[in-house]
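Narrative of activities, Objective 1.

The group set out to show that a structural description can be obtained from nothing but a protein's sequence at a throughput compatible with the screening campaign. Below is one input-output pair from the validation batch, recorded exactly as produced.
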Amino acid sequence: MTDFEEPRTEIEWSRRAIINVVEVLAAHAASLTLVGAHAVLLRTMALDVPRMPTGDGDLGVTPGLVSATPRIETLLVDAGYRHRTSARPGLWGRTVFADQDGSLSFREKVDLLAPHGLSGTVSRSKRGAPALQPDHGKHTVGNVLGLELASFNRSLVTLSDFADPRLTTALHVADIPALVLAKGSKIGERIDHPRKGRVRDKDLGDLWRLMAVGDPADTARVVEEYADHPQIGVHVRQGLAWTAAVVRDPVSRQRAKSNFDTFVDPREIDNAFARWQAALAGIGA
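Output recorded for this entry:
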């Protein structure tokens, strides 16, 4: 058995958590899609900017691709994972340690998130995934708006561990159009509904990363392709509306610039926002 190097930083632990959980849930591999910060990082590796820190690994779970057995909750518990909180479904952790204030935390943290529009719930206040609960447990998977396109717009990638590149796994990763809508939806929903959580400069920085390397015309094509999809069309259109509003808001540019400080020329940020504003405004016109 290979003794892999142990992670040291939060981002190394979260990458290790993703790889480990994908292996634990191998029976449901077709349903898993890497989203969130690690997906953004993977899709924007060509950028010569500092790697952003993150402590969570986000995995989208498409209910229609999940088998009835084996039970996801059982697989995770048997592998040593446990719920990080009872307040929200889908938050799992392993490798407990005592934080500086004496509270218990986890080295490995992963969030299992079903797209809201595919989760089986119509209420935005419900955090669970009713479509999965009978077979896989009430608190096993959460749901979030904006991930719907990621269930379709994704591709298979080999993911390497940061602490020890010998450790790898193959999994689906959301493509740039899906990530742009996911990030734009997260920001837009929180601007409209502040109780959902605060918008951070890092969120706008992530959006710029995606826009800096992505092709706005390609994203427009993908969004138009799924805008009338029978399962996710309404959510794609909502995501587009949120994302377009965020991109045309001058405050978004300023917050992206603040996130990168001196690492990125402000003109590059302005140019990316201008290009994408025009492209998003033209969808369906």
